[in-house]
Amino acid sequence: MKYKILIVDDEAIVRDFVTEVLIRMGHAPLAVDSGEKALQYLQRNEYDLVITDYKMPGISGIDLLREAIRLWPDCRVIVITAFGTIEQAVGAMKLGAHDYLTKPISPDHIEMVVSKALEYKTLKLENRMLRREISEKYSFENIIGKAAPMKMVFELIQRASPADSTILISGESGTGKELVAKAIHYNSSRAGGPFIKMNCAALPEGLIESELFGHEKGAFTGAIRSTRGRFELADGGTLLLDEISEIRPGLQAKLLRVLQEREFERIGSGQSIKTNVRVIATSNRDLKDEVAKGTFRDDLYYRLNVIPIELPPLRQRNEDIPLLSEYFLSKFAQKMGIPAKTLSERTLQMFSSYAWPGNVRELENIIERATVISRNQELLPTDFPAEISVGISEMTKGGIEVGLTIDGAEKMLIIRTLKANSGNRTKTAEVLGITTRTLRTKLQEYGLGDGA
Predict the structure, then answer these.
(1) CB count, 10 Å around CB of 370?
(2) Which whole number is the average pLDDT over 105-112?
(3) Quick one: 167 and 303 in the same domain?
């Protein structure tokens, strides 16, 4: 890659020497003999690197350093100083110079210092672009929805992001809890810090404590080296504790202490470590129910639930299905390098009638599968898994007759949904969008208690 480099020195021999080395490196430098000329070029064009003599008549190298950084903050500046004037070079670096060269200059030294300066500039720009991409990916606009429940979620996210309070995101599996957590992090003052995730449900019970707090060498069998935990790794950023209901009560007490005291100890160490972490927790269970059962500490629940955000299941936001479908069709078409496919009217009707137990994740997966496998440009109901249309036909078979009361229609819907799910009450409640407690009460009203 060729970089734009400006060389400034009132000595022709130095200018020519540095120019020759840079051309050999593959760059296209411009050399001028005064700070005044260099400033004219800098005012018209951006340069990746300026190499300037420290002491020149008129505008000095230090004056040029200040102006170059003021005009082009990403510009790197290397100052050339005479032998024995290291203090000048150090002073220049304090003012923003990237590095310095001392006369007499060797070709190897020029190559090394220039390469490092340009690598630093490239890395800085790449990091900035990556941050921008991450910010765009997890911006609020990428959480898709226009349904009323989602509008409430958007408002909560916007209000919660600038704060530093703990957040509890609840919702069924596949509703996008992690995406919301990332959006909060990357739109907060901690966006420049790390975003660390720990899935509490995916780890064996005995490993969760070590993963959270780290351990010292020899703390237990197999601890062959000291290891930092997630709280240390997330310092200055955000720690996402996914499916926090899976943490056992004994460890919940230790987690509560960290949230209150902002410090913890590695396993096998008596030394406290301070932490500056924002905690976001998620759960697909109702933590209030878990508190009532005695499986989750009430004090930890209230410490986490400072800002609650509840994500609605997809069946409660049917009007978002076309928007989400269009987004996923475009996403996978772009990924595969093909024109985006479309959904037939019958397919959209099928989607709107389906209960989506796997929520947005299920919708995304079946659209990806159809995009890959189907030869149709317009995707038909037959391009999707049979259980979607089967589930609909099971629940709508023997339609509702005129004259049937609302209570009767509700009873028929519940009984047929229960039958379609082979008597599984948890799944039936999820499909109907009610709690298992409400379902149990309804069945008792119909004379279909636990023994039925």
Answers:
(1) 22
(2) 90
(3) yes
Asked if 237 and 277 count as a contact pair (C-beta separation under 8 A), the reply is yes
CB atoms within 10 A of CB 240: 25
Lowest mean pLDDT among 87-101, 204-218, 435-449: 435-449
* Together in a domain, 439 and 389: no
CA–CA gap between residue 348 and residue 360 (Å, rounded): 15
Enumerate residues 6+ apart whose C-beta is below 8 A from 225. Answer: 217
Cis peptide before 312 (omega within 30 of 0): no
Least confident interval from 118-122, 124-128, 281-285, 310-314:
124-128
Q: Which residue has the higher pLDDT, 400 or 73?
A: 73
Enumerate the β-bridge partners of residue 7.
Answer: 31, 51
Name residue 422's beta-bridge partners: none
**Is 134 a member of any domain?**
no
Considering only 36-50, 124-138, 335-349, 380-394, which range has the smallest mean pLDDT?
A: 124-138
Q: How many domains does the chain have?
A: 4
Q: Based on the fold, state whether residues 176 and 27 are members of the same structural domain.
A: no
Cβ burial, residue 34 (10 Å; 0-12/13-18/19+): middle
The pLDDT score that the predictor gives to residue 395 is 45
> pLDDT tens digits, residue range 331-375?
899 888 888 999 998 899 889 888 898 999 999 999 999 999 999
Eight-state DSSP code of residue 267: B
Confirm if 250 and 208 have CB atoms less than 8 A apart. no
C-alpha 164/C-alpha 193 separation (Å) is: 13
Rounded distance between C-alpha atoms, residue 45 and residue 43, angstroms: 6
Which domain does 371 fall in, by range?
315-396
| Spatial contact of 392 and 355, defined as CB atoms under 8 Å apart | no
- Look at the block and give the residue holding tokens 């979607």: 388
Q: Domain holding 370: CATH number? A: 1.10.8.60
Asked whether residue 401 is domain-assigned, the answer is: no
**pTM of this prediction?**
0.59
In a 13 Å sphere around the CA of 390, the CA atoms on its Cβ side amount to 7
φ, ψ (nearest 5 deg) of residue 100: -145, 160
Amino acid letter, residue 276: N
Summary mean pLDDT of the chain: 86
Tokens of 30: 């411009």
Q: Which two tokens stand for residue 71?
A: 């005009």
Whether the per-residue pLDDT at 31 is higher than 90: the answer is yes
